[in-house]
Write a structure and sequence with these properties.
Mean pLDDT of chain A: 90
Radius of gyration of chain A: 27 Å
Shape of chain B: globular
Number of domains of chain A: 2
Number of domains of chain B: 2
Number of strands of chain A: 0
Largest sheet of chain B: 8 strands, mixed
Mean pLDDT of chain B: 90
Oligomer: heterodimer
Low-confidence stretches of chain B: 1-9, 25-33
Structural class of chain B: alpha/beta
Low-confidence stretches of chain A: none
């Protein structure tokens, strides 16, 4: 058999198996998935790969750069700005996750009880999550901007001296975290409330018969039942906090003296302020890698348990 | 096959007839096209309150009426993400024919081959004497790489303002030197009010530029090398640090943005601030209580402040450079309504517009035009003209951070070293 004949016979076989695949209906799921896959490739994979490539070039917003190898990553990792942004991102994420989890859980436990005005509180406590960030954060800003702002008037009523919340590094960090907690707790509360309501009541009855105190019921029944949802919530909140642009930008623009600049703000500054797309892309990718490591670690821990 | 003797001749005639018919058919759209007006896209940044856009649209409509062969389409561009707007349009091949833009936009885009120099237009204006109508230095500020990259139209400048009521209450005269400003700031700092209201945003960095340029300093040497730690600059920073040490600068300044600062100034929480010439007209009820400080003399007698020459640029992608030139010349000469009707916060670069009664009625703007504009200097000082790196120097936030740390009272030598090394890394020195 000649090479041409062989090729024809192979093509025939391929066509036949494709027809069979089509007839059996196995192709249908792939066809139905194709638009979504194409969309994901276009809006996620392509920009991501392009961004990854930019991290190895020295281009600006207007011109493609030359390939510079790992220069951008080396410059980034050795820069003080990056180390600070990484540290702040970590502090921001840890305090926000712990803070909004504690607050969300506390309120969820409260709203799970038969308290008066429960439907009203359930709705009212969702407001920080519903109000657009620009409205809420700018309002917070007005309340703490200077010596005549609301917070300082309250402090003045108790005889205290004005506190310049946005001018002092430590206070600015505290306020950025506090406002992020305020914006985040409703989501935690809502999710944990749903989880609390799905816990089997008989577990509490059994614990009660065994003489368990309310604290022990919380510790040995409630918390283990909330474990899986808690891990997922912590994971999501960590990602959202590390990627949060609105809170630090609208409140402090990353200041004072870069004290509240997280990795996202740093990537923005490098890309649009310095016009260095390579360094900005490298910053974004390092952020992504850190988040991916965290996600893998937490999911493994969840699986192990 | 047989053919008659004149067959070739008939064939040629037929061919000619066909060609004529084809030409007639083919050219008819061209003839129709020639009758259509040339369309130009003009993108204009929002340089003032909402009425500015209406005034600019009216002006474009007037041009279109006067020039039926050219039809300009006006598009208003918001400042949010302006850079991305232009970059995307240029990359996609949909850039406008001409646009107004931020101070350094023309040089930045020129460097990337997107801007068409207007040397021929400048030459024409020079010959006709029209160029003499521009305020000194404004046209040459836009000369880069031996080309004129844009035509100036507006000036943004920073000047010192004072609260008349606070100075009166303290029995003080309006300062005329930096030493007097410091004394006045110290004297007005009492009862929860402060002498100086600054900010920690881009507007905060303008205090630094103003101080160094006022003292005869500048960010660059003549050959465009960074010179942040020059003797005059350090002296200027020390003057500001001295006011912070006196307690005259509001501690809220670090966290203030320019809107916060203006609001506090209008409420009478501070005696002095540095802002654009439009501050008084936007101060509402407080307008009567605010005055413009005359240009201050530095310790060596120098005067100066920061200014930006905003401009109109032509894009390489235009297919109608001659028509663009016609519009640009017309717009530059006839743009007075942008002030009289549009209330733009800019100051005009043309003497003929500056002489309009509008600036006599708006006393503070007239004063700034007469007294501050002649001493205005760019961020590029002491280098000539402007150049692309200025955008990164101003945009990256180093001077912002420097200002924040200065208002916090941190040791000057320490923050100056940090700012210097960060600026050097930006300009790759």
């Amino acid at each position: 058999m000649s090479a041409v004949d062989l090729s024809r016979s192979e093509a025939g076989t391929w066509r036949a198996s494709a027809r069979a695949w089509w007839r059996t209906g196995d192709a249908l799921p792939f066809l139905l998935l194709a638009p979504s896959v194409l969309l994901i490739l276009a809006v996620i994979a392509y920009p991501m790969l392009t961004g990854f490539w930019y991290g190895f070039t020295d281009g600006s917003l207007l011109k493609y750069g030359r390939f510079v190898g790992l220069d951008n990553y080396v410059e980034l990792i050795t820069s003080r700005d990056f180390r600070h942004a990484l540290w702040f991102s970590l502090v921001f994420a840890v305090f926000n996750v712990v803070g909004c989890y504690a607050l969300g859980l506390g309120l969820a436990l409260l709203l799970n009880q038969d308290v008066p005005g429960r439907p009203f509180f359930r709705v009212a406590l969702l407001l920080p999550w519903i109000v657009p960030s620009i409205v809420s954060i700018v309002s917070w800003r007005w309340m703490m901007a200077d010596e005549r702002a609301l917070f300082n008037q309250v402090i003045g009523l108790f005889g205290g001296s004005p506190v310049y919340f946005l001018s002092d590094q430590t206070w600015a960090v505290v306020m950025v975290i506090a406002i992020k907690i305020w914006r985040s707790f409703p989501f935690m509360m809502l999710s944990l409330l749903a989880a609390l309501q799905s816990i089997d009541r008989s577990l509490y009855e059994a614990a009660s018969l065994d003489g368990a105190s309310r604290w022990n019921q919380f510790r040995f029944v409630t918390m283990p039942q909330l474990r899986n949802i808690s891990i997922v919530l912590a994971l999501l909140m960590t990602i959202w906090t590390v990627n949060d642009f609105d809170t630090p930008w609208l409140l402090t623009q990353g200041g004072p003296a870069n004290a509240t600049e997280n990795l996202v703000l740093l990537a923005y500054r490098y890309t649009f302020g310095r016009n260095d797309v390579g360094l900005g892309s490298a910053t974004s990718f390092v952020t992504l890698i850190i988040l991916m490591i965290l996600v893998v670690f937490l999911l493994r821990r969840q699986k192990e348990r | 096959m047989k053919t008659s003797g004149n067959a070739p001749a008939r064939g040629r005639a037929g061919l000619l007839a066909s060609l004529a018919a084809a030409l007639a058919i083919g050219l008819s759209p061209v003839a129709a096209y020639a009758a259509d007006p040339v369309k130009l896209n003009f993108w204009d940044m929002i340089w003032g309150p909402p009425e500015y856009i209406d005034a600019a649209k009216e002006l474009v409509a007037e041009f279109n009426k006067e020039n039926p062969g050219i039809q300009v389409e006006y598009r208003s561009i918001p400042w949010n993400n302006w850079y991305q707007t232009y970059v995307t349009a240029i990359s996609a091949g949909t850039a406008p024919d001409l646009s107004t833009g931020a101070g350094y936009q023309a040089v930045q885009l020129y460097d990337l081959g997107a801007i068409r120099p207007i040397d021929d237009l400048i030459e024409e204006m020079k010959t006709s004497g029209d160029l003499d109508d521009f305020l000194p230095g404004t046209v040459d500020t836009l000369r880069y790489d031996d080309h004129y990259v844009a035509l100036p139209w507006g000036i943004d400048i920073r000047v010192w303002f004072y609260r008349k009521d606070m100075l009166d209450a303290a029995g003080l005269k309006v300062p005329t030197t930096w030493a007097e400003l410091r004394e006045a700031a110290k004297a007005t700092t009492k009862d929860g009010k402060f002498g100086i209201l600054a900010s920690g945003d881009t507007g905060g960095s303008h205090f630094l530029y103003n101080a160094i340029l006022n003292n005869g300093g500048g960010l660059f040497t003549e050959d465009r090398k960074l010179d942040l730690k020059s003797e005059r600059n350090v002296e200027a920073f020390e003057a500001l640090a001295g006011m912070v040490a006196d307690g005259s600068v509001s501690p809220a300044s670090t966290g203030y943005n320019s809107d916060d600062r203006r609001g506090a100034f209008n409420r009478g929480q501070g005696a002095f601030t540095l802002d654009g010439p439009g501050l008084i007209s936007q101060a509402g009820d407080a307008a009567d209580k605010i005055g413009v400080v005359p240009p201050l003399a530095g310790p060596h007698g120098d005067k100066g402040t920061i200014f930006w020459v905003n401009n109109i640029m032509v894009y390489e992608q235009t297919k109608h450079p001659e028509e663009v030139k016609t519009f640009l010349k017309w717009w530059s000469k006839n743009q007075t309504p942008l002030w009289t009707k549009g209330n733009t916060g800019q100051l005009p670069t043309r003497k003929s517009i500056a002489a309009n009664d509008y600036f006599k009625q708006q006393a503070s703007r007239g004063y700034v035009l007469e007294n501050y504009v002649p001493i205005g200097k760019t961020t590029a000082t002491h280098a000539a003209g402007i150049f692309p790196a200025l955008n990164e120097v101003e945009g990256e936030g180093v001077m912002q951070t420097f200002a924040q740390e200065l208002w916090q009272g941190k040791p000057l030598d320490q923050i100056l070293d940090t700012a210097d090394s960060r600026l050097k890394s930006i300009v790759k020195e």
